[in-house]
Amino acid sequence: MNQLTNVVSSRAALPLLDSEVLRSFVTIAERGSFTRAAQQLFRTPSALSMQIKRLEETLGQTLFVREARHVRLTAEGEVLLGYGRRLLKLNAEAVTQFLAPTLEGRVGLGITDDVVGRVLPTVLAQFARSHPAVQVDVIVGRSVELLARLDEAELDLALVMAGEPGQATRGEIVHSEPLVWAGREDGVAVQRSPLPVTLAQQGCAWRRIALQALDSAGMNYRIAYSCDHCAGQEAAMLADLAISPFPKSLIRPPLKRLTNESLPSLGDYQVALVKRPGSGDASEVLAERVVEAFREG
Q1: Which of 6, 30, 111, 221 is least surrounded by CB atoms within 10 angstroms?
Q2: Which tens digits make up the pLDDT trace of 250-271?
């Protein structure tokens, strides 16, 4: 009985983490600076420093390595960052459930198939829990088509590849990562001449980036396979018919990143979130969830 009492007592004695302190910690970690975080939170750097000092004392761990112009997380700080983001999200969901105005209606979300698996399951699950009365209609398509539907008021939000040919970048950049050459691990397509490549149809940013790089490098190539969907391009690589420009984060075995010196560098590609003006409160809230999902990776 005494042992059980001691266990219950020790658990009850655990300190509770203050949500405002966690918000300060997460903001400092994301901005990499007490000064920049203080500007965002409308606090003084010294006030944030005191909060972090108390948090480190509470947990018995050093959370930041302080350098001349910026700060970086320690290993323990990296662990707490994951917990902190989740706790703040749960706190926001709980408050929204009881205090936020009830959202109703419909939101049309357009998304390209390269980002469907990245954020859509998480975003839809969280949004449905917080706002069950809102219907979300998802359309998967090419960036140019989604932007056209947005302009026709058929969509409220669109996640598209930024920098489409002949178009200025629209919306907010929410994700950026390297575009690299990919092929089968044990494949020989990369050794063939002319080099066989698989690309999307005209109007795709990946296609434009790849063709410009190949032409600039003076490489002998041919378009061996063409498909607008990532799954189709993956199929061509799995069959060792061709290699393809692909986001680094989407490459999975038996595909691999190709690092042959003869292949030209492709640089980064970006994803933009474009909103239709006047699309309503539900659309704005869903947009916030999308941005958060990309930020948290």
Answers
A1: 6
A2: 899 999 999 988 999 999 889 9
Q: Taking the model in full, what pTM does it have?
A: 0.66
The beta strand positions in the chain, using DSSP E, are 64-66, 71-73, 105-111, 134-140, 157-161, 172-184, 195-199, 221-226, 244-247, 255-257, 268-275
Cα angle, residue 56 at apex, residues 17 and 70 outer, rounded to 5° = 115
- Quote the CATH superfamily of domain 105-172+271-296: Periplasmic binding protein-like II (3.40.190.10)
Both tokens of residue 60? 């018995």
Does CATH place domain 176-269 in 3.30.450.20?
Answer: no
Give the Cα separation of 138 and 174 in Å (integer).
Answer: 18
- Residue 106, strand partner residues: 135
**CATH 3.40.190.10 boundaries in the chain:** 105-172+271-296, 176-269
Name beta bridge partners: 221: 195
